[in-house]
Specification:
about 130 residues, 4-stranded mixed beta sheet, about 45% helix, alpha+beta
Amino acid sequence: MTDTEVNPKAYTLADAQLTKTILDLVQQASNYKQLRKEANEASKNLNRGISEFIAMAADTEPLEIILHLPLLCEDKNVLYVFVQSKQALGGAYRVSRPVILCTITIKEGSQLKPQIQSVQQAIERLLV
């Protein structure tokens, strides 16, 4: 698979502008301790009801290791979106390794609430 090809199972892929916005938000959420990475953490946060939304990397190999999360998100009414690159997601998370997914968590009185809401609205527009 080349860089331009994306697995068709990675449905609701963010465009370049939304990806940039999501990666900026991931970086800020990391500073505010509102970010968790990897599938186990995401599943726990979804089940606890503390996830705002989940960003997953479309270039995850094999993609099937994270495809249970969209189903769980739909059950819990949490938005999810795929971004192009796990390397970019890792960079936004401020780690040198690729990150296949991360979840932004709810925090009372968070300064990120307006940005989180605008990203959620953009993700909802992708789903329509």
